[in-house]
Write a structure and sequence with these properties.
Elements lengths: L2 H17 L12 E3 L5 E6 L2 E6 L13 H24 L5 E10 L1 H4 L10 E11 L4 H14 L1 H7 L8
Antiparallel strand pairs: 1-2, 2-3, 4-5
Length: 165
Amino acid sequence: MNAEQLRAAQAPLKQRYRETPDAARVSARAEAVLDPAELACGVAGWHGEVRAGLHPATGGSGELACSADMLLQALVACAGVTLRAVATAMGVTIRGGRVVAEGHWDARGTLGVDRATPVGLTDIALSFEIDSDAEAAKLERMIATTERYCVILQTLRAPPAVTVG
């Protein structure tokens, strides 16, 4: 897809959302099906089920997906797609590259070993490795724009209200 095709695809959506803001509100949903036989659950994905379980640091075998890794995977997927859209809109040719997210969490919190230790990822580093002939300033602007419009990155930076029921 080139910039003209992207603009053509998005123009009617943008116009509709300007005219009817409520139409822009998108629902997202995920569901895990509990496995009664083991400490695992199945999560439906675009290309089949992902089986998630305990991380080896909390007693898992390492054979099942780790939820923290899945969160980072969602981040790099969103940032990668957003980067490609931004590059296309800016007319930047990308020959290849990678988006990498690395995070850390302390198993003592999850296992209740130390109540003062936070539960969950405490830091995430997101980096972009881009193979392009674009000038450094243009690449910096492209990454800044990607940061601004990446749904998962912005959700992590400004967490939504979460209810549990």
